[in-house]
């Protein structure tokens, strides 16, 4: 069995995917690299096949009709044979030194028969042209260099949360919890991290800057104007997360608390994008999203509305929108 399966969702990625694959090849035969060509129109399929032919014991090329980022991740998970599973987007890459430390730790866990459900590491916002690269780390909230449970997790700061770039899940856990991402939908990485959390019993935080998250392409889904244009998809993901969240079945109190924290951040992102659009129809969508939370989880809605972030988004009219934008900026 491979130690780690890595899925690379790839759509029209010929200009940059080689850099991603090359960084992952340094893991050697402990790793299975699943390049998922999601119905690309350029040379993505050819590049994937070339790497699969050159490294048959490491790289597999998977070709499918276009289903969007979520379905590409689904395909990777369906085909994964490794003990652990990671998603690396085709325009991102990983740090070689940190990569080797992570593989060493995962192999140690497997050799000892230790069940590790989720490994967390740091990621770097590799913004094009920026001299200072912001690092998202979790030193203030997670124990280091030891296996821990939700009981040992500290309090996350505002804006601090675990993204897909941060996590490696146990493959069997993802399959057993029935994780399936929606097709033709952006921002499903939030669902990828969020939905498995109630099934996570054991975690390990390795304080290394592993994932390099590239920011610089104008068409990236995290570009502010792109996010505003796709606000309906952001809201769709929000509602799916709200639908999934069931505080009654979550075993660990701190897991439930963190999931509420996560919902608060995602609701804030959708709300501010609605406001930044300056369109009355999107202002209405913001109100409807919070109303949806209230209908599904009244106690969670009350809690979030009392928090400073939630309170800001409930100040009515132009004054409320101006305050929200000022704080966001």
Strand composition percent: 15-25%
What is the helix tally? 13
Rg result: 20 Å
Low-confidence stretches: none
* Major beta-sheet overview: 10 strands, mixed
How would you explain this protein's 3D organization?
The chain is an alpha/beta fold and 329 residues long. It is built from 13 helices and ten strands. Strands 1, 2, 3, 4, 5, 6, 7, 8, 9 and 10 form a ten-stranded mixed sheet that branches. Helix 8 packs antiparallel against helix 9, helix 9 packs antiparallel against helix 10 and helix 10 packs across helix 11.
Strand-helix topology:
Blueprint: E1 4-10, H1 17-25, E2 31-38, H2 44-54, E3 59-64, H3 68-79, E4 84-87, E5 93-94, H4 96-112, E6 118-127, E7 134-136, E8 147-148, E9 167-170, H5 171-176, H6 189-194, E10 203-215, H7 224-229, H8 231-244, H9 253-276, H10 280-296, H11 298-306, H12 308-312, H13 317-328
Parallel strand pairs: 1-2, 1-4, 2-3, 6-10
Antiparallel strand pairs: 4-9, 5-10, 6-7, 6-9, 8-10
